[in-house]
Write a structure and sequence with these properties.
By secondary structure, this protein is α/β, with parallel strands linked by helices. 34% of the residues lie in helices and 15% in strands. It is globular, with a radius of gyration of 23 Å.
Length: 270
């Protein structure tokens, strides 16, 4: 604006810009440059947090068979709806803002698919099972230890849990949302299907049943923890309300909504 004003003054026959004007212009552009540099220095997680802080809704797509009942064609990432995909769910919703995984070996198996198919803003992972580092474009979390619990929901490098779904739920709390909607959080088989991913089916469920039991216990611990920590960190914000879209889920901690919001729809039976 100052440059435009100066050019107008010159073209109108006014006196050239004085030293004080040049000095003001210099300070203006110096401040502008520092502001831009500061924003560029933010890592992708910080930028995403700024963009979606206190977002109204977060939808987390898990991997259970009930995921197939959700009409994903009607679900879209918006400024009022942040979507987090767990593991292969990114292939069902490649435009989601976040794709999260927990295991390093999983990432090695799917890194090429993530690079070519995922269209969202951020890939996050915990690197469980390995001490190897991720490439710079992947935001790495660590699972919260007992002596770090006071920093949960505040540190951008800490999440909670021994499975991808619970980690994504803990991650969601960083954004201080009003509501969190869980899709595909079943922790049980359905018609001999362990997962809702396309081309992903295991007939032997004993392996999964063992781990599902561990996962459910970890959810219970997390629920007690979030009720304890949230008022300490955000006394002016209500604890996010969590809904499980599957009424038949083995995860009974969270209610199934009586009525779905407009952005969530169930497929019509064939």
């Amino acid at each position: 604006m100052l440059i435009i004003t100066y050019l107008r003054n010159v073209n109108s026959g006014y006196s050239p810009m004085k030293y004080d004007d040049f000095n003001h212009l210099y300070r203006f552009w110096q401040t502008h440059f520092e502001y831009c540099t500061m924003n560029q220095s933010l890592d992708p997680m910080q930028s995403l947090l700024q963009q979606y802080r206190q977002v109204q809704n977060i939808v987390i797509l898990g991997g259970g068979p009930s995921l197939q009942t959700l009409d994903l064609a009607q679900l879209h990432p918006t400024q009022e709806c942040l979507i987090i995909c767990c593991n292969q769910a990114f292939q069902l919703m490649p435009q989601a803002q976040i794709a999260h995984h927990s295991d390093y070996q999983w990432w090695k198996n799917y890194q090429q698919a993530l690079d070519t198919e995922f269209q969202g803003q951020l890939i996050t992972g915990c690197g469980l099972g390995s001490n190897a580092s991720y490439p710079e474009h992947i935001h790495q979390f660590s699972t919260c230890q007992n002596d770090q619990l006071a920093s949960l929901f505040q540190s951008l490098r800490l999440t909670y849990g021994n499975n991808c779904g619970l980690q994504a739920l803990a991650l969601a709390h960083l954004f201080q949302p009003e509501s969190i909607w869980l899709a595909g959080f079943d922790f049980k088989a359905q018609e001999q299907r362990s997962h809702g991913y396309v081309k992903y089916d295991h007939k032997d469920m004993s392996h999964y049943e063992k781990f599902w039991g561990f996962f459910l216990k970890d959810f219970s611990r997390f629920e007690r923890l979030r009720h304890s920590l949230w008022p300490q960190h955000y006394p002016e914000r209500n604890l996010p309300q969590i809904y499980n879209l599957n009424a038949d889920s083995a995860l009974k901690l969270y209610p199934c909504p009586v009525q779905l919001p407009p952005f969530l729809q169930i497929k019509n039976p064939a």
